[in-house]
Design brief:
The chain has 127 residues and is mainly alpha-helical. The chain has one domain. Helix content is 87%, strand content 0%. Helix 1 packs parallel to helix 3.
Length: 127
């Protein structure tokens, strides 16, 4: 139990720092007009989740601690729907309802699609 908690905490710390870095990079390169950092981490993180889940199911069965570190810790902190929700409200309150709805649809559609793609790639390569 303690090992799993430590794994989640370590992965969570790393995932949070990575998410912050992506958000800062997106803000620096693209400005604050649109939450590109959050949408990028949610799509990429969903793709990586698909890769890992399929890999764990078909190729490698890691320890519960490794799974906890990668899935719950790292990816749980890297991707974030709390920031997603805040970004939607920010766009909405700016009066940009169309951008807010496009943001929701793009985030959900592409994140789920990326997860399917990640799983498909692992199945294609290893099965």
């Amino acid at each position: 139990m303690i090992a799993s908690i430590a794994a989640i905490a370590g992965g969570g710390a790393l995932g949070a720092v990575l998410r912050h870095s992506v958000n800062q990079g997106a803000l620096h390169y693209f400005g604050p007009a649109y939450p590109l950092g959050t949408i990028a981490v949610n799509i990429f993180g969903s793709f990586v989740m698909g890769v890992l889940i399929a890999y764990f199911a078909h190729v490698w069965q890691p320890s519960p601690e490794v799974k906890a570190f990668l899935v719950t810790g790292l990816l749980g902190a890297f991707t974030t729907f709390s920031a997603f929700s805040l970004d939607f409200v920010t766009l909405w309150e700016r009066g940009d309802e169309m951008a807010a709805f496009v943001y929701v649809l793009a985030s959900v559609f592409f994140a789920i699609g990326a997860l399917f793609l990640g799983m498909a790639i692992i199945r294609w390569v290893f099965l």
